[in-house]
Amino acid sequence: MTYTQQLYYVLPLFVVVGGASLLLLFEAFAGEGSRRWLMGLAVVTCAAALLATWLVWRRVSDFEEVYLFDRMLVADKFSLFLTMVFLAGTLLTVLLGTDFLREHDSLYGEFFGLLLLTTSGMIILAMAADLVSVFLGIETMSVGAYVLTGAFRRHRRATEAAMKYFVAGAFATGFLLYGIALVYGTTGTTQLADIAKLASANTPPLFVIGQFMLIVALGFKVAAVPFHMWAPDAYEGAPTPVTGYMAAAIKAAGMAAILRVFYTGFGGDVLPYGPLGWATILSILSVLTMTVGNIAALRQENIKRMLAYSSIAHAGYILIGVVAAGLTPASGVARSAVLYYLLAYTFTTIGAFGVVAWIGRRNDERQMVDDWAGLAARHPAAALAMTVFLLSLGGIPPTGGFFGKFYVFRAAMDVDGQIWLVIAGVLNSVVSVYYYLRVVMAMYFRDPAREPRPLASAPMTAALAICAVAVLLMGLLPSSWLGLATSSTVLAAP
Amino acid sequence: MTDLLLPTVLFLPLVGALFLMLVPAREEGMLRGTAFAVSLATFLVSLGLVFGFDADKAGFQFVTDKRWVDSIGARFKIGVDGISVWLVLLTTFLTPIVLLSAWRSIEKKVKEFVITFLILETGMLGAFVAIDLFLFYIAWEVMLIPMYFIIGVWGGDRRVYASIKFVLYTMVGSLLMLVAIFYLYVKYGQALKAAGLPEESTFDLEAMWRLQLPHTDQIWCFLAFSLAFAIKVPVFPLHTWLPDAHVEAPTSGSVILAGVLLKFGVYGFLRFAIPLFPYATQTLGPYMFILGMVGVVYGALMSYAQDDIKKLIAYSSVSHLGFCVMGAFALNPAGMQGAIYAALSHGFTTSGLFLAVGVLYDRRHTRRIVDYGGITSEMPFFSAMFLICTLGSVGLPALSGFVGEFLTLIGSYVGGRDFADYMATPQLYTVVATSGVILSAVYLLTLFQKVMLGPLKNPKNKGLPDLSPREKAVFLPIVLGIFVLGVAPMPFLKPMAKPVDALLQSYRTKLAAPDALQIVGGAPKKPEPKAAAPEGTPE
Q: Would you tell me which of A5, A332, A384, B162 could form a disulfide with A489, CB atoms 3.0–4.6 Å apart?
């Protein structure tokens, strides 16, 4: 394939990066008044990128892997599916974020540019076929995310959050590089598809240490316990729509990286197993992550912080699917379960944070559970949407979140000896239902303490409606969506 | 035509709820009227199930089987047999009555109330008619959320506490049941593969009944299923959510909770836990039996100690459903049929009692026994209704409670006679449980006496209006039902006989099968039995 032909497969990436550059350029010339226009451009960019992804999707057949640029990137349905998830998340974040930032007097054109650049990093990550492109993707994504976290640049809380995220993130990057170096040093390759072949015959200690370092680095990116310390503060300090974006899209990208690196790079019949195998370690991390996230969320009075902890817990559920994927390399069940979960989770989480953004005003953010009392009486549609999101997060039918959990648990059930993960996940779900329903109770069962004064701008409302409908559709008609995820499960086998 | 009967019954309330969403909230009369009409229509259509039912068949009738979630082999498969048809009828019967009873007592958020109730009806019906484990689970969860809202939005002072307690208790049970459902699904797939059958694994209950799990697996799965059902029944000591939920729920919620939702526990044991896990039933069944007995006596004693009428009736449910659990785990036809019959009868009598409390509460806004006394002189018609429900619940012969309790006690006394090592002395436990019958007379008749008889001590009770025509229309069908169930039990028992016999038959067959993963009696969709597993005993 010539270079020009290869470019076709990275069309979505070009559209996103091109749009981001244009947005940054226009910002230099645009005045105060024309920023809404920038939102339009960002929306068009996302829509065009979605269209481009769809075009590539049609050209790639179900179990085909198209290697690009000297095997640095790979275009397959796995990456394209995730690209669509990221782009949908970005689109919703643009719709939610613009008016929110304007309300808080922090809307700058860089917001759109950075958001799209962050997304381009995620796309690279989903397409990564080499440890070097994994690194590139993660860095592109993270640098954008650090700045977005501090978008309220005049607030001390936001600056602190961004600083914390940046310092801890830079530390994790060190681990990532060190891990890559050790793996490269012991196997002589950074190609993900070759690592397993070269390493499974004998695994020198340095290789194992390299693997641990990669677990630390990627565990940090998805906020898995015990590498989650940055997450609650960063999530709370970031503007709420950005928090939703971080909790959903960035986490999804981190999971994509984990699947690429570990499933493809460290997969096979040897490396995931045994006490030092990554699947074993990730299974322990997953139980820790769910449990710590849920227990911490139980005590939160601030809904945004509660959702931040709940998103930590959800990383734990997703890791169950990742572990199952590693232990059943031949079957696509676990991989499609993870993809389905990520899709449902993206709509749910962005929606939930979106309602939190929708309800507050500048200097009157209404983030406490008590502030939501009686919301259903005044704004029934918003309360209903939030209920749908919370039920989906809790894994109660008929929502997408239920089927996401269902598929992930079923995948783990297929693996011998991993039923304890399912039981841990199920018990955690019960715990989580308690704090999700506390919000529902406040909205429906109590009388309003103060008259709600929501921000309620039209693009935000539209984004929330899209999320709610998507979550319900995924719960009522899961088959077609799962079919999409199943056809996307091709991942370079080890 | 008959193909569409069951889906119509199932979805009519849901369609009604969707329609009502379009009606403006201020049109309260129209909302109430439409909801009542829809639920009444559902009841009338469901009568077709009863009249069209063939009592000589053991299997499911009115079966609808459609593709649903293909990727996991879950199907939209519904049908009724001689057990579930009565529970379906009970549900469709009680819903219009409850909506009628709530005409005046629910005044806020009427639109939300009637919509929630109709969705709840579809959820309950779905759980009774599902013959696919996955569909059953979905319906089981779907009915949880409306009930949560009914308690939480329209409930009493401690409604927030009661509603979350109700949800958490139920969720713990149901999620572990979900794990067991997964496990069955995976094992069924393995068993099919081991038997060399080409089919994919499914959640089809009829297929799953033939799966024999190894004994240890059976124990764990039985525990997971039984926890869900035991919480629903509720079996002592998992009953503590029930008094809270009943007391805080509005009258309509209490009626549905006691009348229908508690029946899911008994139904679940008979439909799922016992036939799916015979070995575990044999091993653990005696303990369930004993817990049932404890519930009978404990519920009765607790009931006697209450000074709140609603709480008293709530605890009486614990006692009455203890009989059902004993009957189910007696593992003989009399006991099992008695369990279903007692559950049906409880649906009528306890609903009547809760409605009676609702009538008193609407007039006086208190539920304490000491605030009443001598009401008979003011409300003679109500007094008669209340008395019949009380006596029906006590188990007076010729009223509904008698037949069910008599059958369960006979069944329990005989015990698992066919199964030598099942239980040593069921007679002893039965004698203890029989005291529950006497105790129920003590607490319920004392209640009636203190509330209705004697002099009119409290001047506030002077001149209370007797039942309005609407309230009479609520009570008369229930009282009629109590008489019919008491006088003519045979039309109800006859359809139950075949399914119960088939259940016990498959229980014995699977119990005799060796301790290994296999499919007993050949795969379901295979026409020729030679492809069956080694133990194949084709039906």
A: A332
